[in-house]
Automatic annotation (TrEMBL), chain A:
<feature type="transmembrane region" description="Helical">
    <location>
        <begin position="108"/>
        <end position="131"/>
    </location>
</feature>
<feature type="domain" description="ABC transmembrane type-1">
    <location>
        <begin position="29"/>
        <end position="227"/>
    </location>
</feature>
<keyword id="KW-0812">Transmembrane</keyword>
<keyword id="KW-1133">Transmembrane helix</keyword>
<feature type="transmembrane region" description="Helical">
    <location>
        <begin position="31"/>
        <end position="50"/>
    </location>
</feature>
<dbReference type="GO" id="GO:0022857">
    <property type="term" value="F:transmembrane transporter activity"/>
</dbReference>
<feature type="transmembrane region" description="Helical">
    <location>
        <begin position="209"/>
        <end position="230"/>
    </location>
</feature>
<dbReference type="GO" id="GO:0043190">
    <property type="term" value="C:ATP-binding cassette (ABC) transporter complex"/>
</dbReference>
<dbReference type="InterPro" id="IPR035906">
    <property type="entry name" value="MetI-like_sf"/>
</dbReference>
From TrEMBL, chain B:
<comment type="subunit">
    <text>The complex is composed of two ATP-binding proteins (GltL), two transmembrane proteins (GltJ and GltK) and a solute-binding protein (GltI).</text>
</comment>
<feature type="domain" description="ABC transmembrane type-1">
    <location>
        <begin position="22"/>
        <end position="220"/>
    </location>
</feature>
<comment type="similarity">
    <text>Belongs to the binding-protein-dependent transport system permease family. HisMQ subfamily.</text>
</comment>
<dbReference type="GO" id="GO:0006865">
    <property type="term" value="P:amino acid transport"/>
</dbReference>
<dbReference type="InterPro" id="IPR035906">
    <property type="entry name" value="MetI-like_sf"/>
</dbReference>
<dbReference type="InterPro" id="IPR010065">
    <property type="entry name" value="AA_ABC_transptr_permease_3TM"/>
</dbReference>
<dbReference type="GO" id="GO:0022857">
    <property type="term" value="F:transmembrane transporter activity"/>
</dbReference>
<keyword id="KW-0472">Membrane</keyword>
<dbReference type="GO" id="GO:0043190">
    <property type="term" value="C:ATP-binding cassette (ABC) transporter complex"/>
</dbReference>
Amino acid sequence: MHYNWNWGIFWQESPDGVSTYMDTLLAGLKWTLALSISAWIMALVIGTVIGTIRTMPNKWAVRLANGYVELFRNIPLIVQMFLWYFVMPEIVPASIGNWLKSLPNASFITAFLALGFFTSSRIAVQVSAGINALPRGQKLAGTALGLTLPQTYRYVLLPMSFRIIIPSLTNEFAAIIKNSSVALTIGLVELTAATYSMREFTFQTFESLTGATVIYVLISGIALLLARWLEKAIAIPGFIASGSANTGGH
Amino acid sequence: MFSNFDFDVIQRSWFYLFTTGMKFTLTLTLVAMVGGILFGTVLAMMRLSHSKTISLIATSYVNLIRSVPLVLVIFWFYFLVPYIGAWIIGAKEPVQVGAFSSALITFILFEAAYYCEIMRSGIQSIPRGQVSAGYALGMNYWQMMGNVVLPQAFRNMIPILLTQTIVLFQDVSLVYVLGSVPDFVTVASKIAQRDGRLVEMYMFVAVVYFVMSFGLSTLVKKLQHKVAIIR
């Protein structure tokens, strides 16, 4: 077996002549974090709205929200990225399409939209599961106190359910960081893509892949520690912590 | 908006798309599901083992795989498998294993980590009394596991195992990053680029995936009601 190991490769100069390959990886990491965090915020906002609608009394609103969830859940993320990147600019009016294509960070914006909508449907499921897990009496008590339905959601149901679903939300945050790597297929040079380009220049395949793997493992380790701390800090007294649910998905 | 939508390109290529791309995607999904569940069950039994070392090995493997993106894992195995092959048969040069085997090994090893967690909670959902009862009947560990615990764990977990398989079916689309594996997305995108018909092709791919995944998950929901063990 011939493979020449060279761990020093990370400190060597990359083809741009100014930075090292380590800088290449860190630049990729920055894109990964920027994409994950911005898409996470979008997913959390939309997911909460859709998830709440799924528990409302209005049948048609529930159907619409369910349709939203099914739409974004049943198409692979990579295909959704292609739809936003290649298809969307073509089916909107030509002037908007041309404007979209000429944006300086077109691939970042598309990846943000794709990842945000994709994740929002998964968060919606968790939010509505959290609300449904609350005893029915909570909603009745809210109404009995004279709160309107929106107020009951705002002051009783949502704060309770969010504390219950913290473990699945942190799982989802770990997932969004991993899913952000799919953005390399539309040309965003995030961490995995940076690794791949480093490999193409240096042929030090395993060193570059190891570099990225170590970074991903560190991030998910940090996320895990934060999650544990958060779960303890905001656990509802009297409720048994549900723990990380081992269900399907990533 | 759809004035120059060209349905012709779909009509021309759908047969090829399904007999090549979708056939490959489904084959990979099914074989990886069987392999992943088998290896995942072994991993789950290892994680629950009394031996600290065995349980630590399985736990580290599962946690490592679960913290790395699938795209990166695909790259890892694509480059690593030829070297492992060479190491096993003692060859001097990396062995060319072909795109299908490489993708298959990747998905079995990757999905096994997820199936393992499902099987682990399945095994843990079996009351301890069942284990004791098995031993009391004079069974050894393997008989107890094979005849008492695992059949019940599988039955409890069938809906979640199938849901994970739908995720796997969608995950297979990521072999696109290798460019050389003829899965549904790769084949469709090659035709799309050749004919300059990205809009039509990608929308068609999305519709096909939607219909199949939605259909399968509806079936799984129905099955869930059927297999539920009444307690």
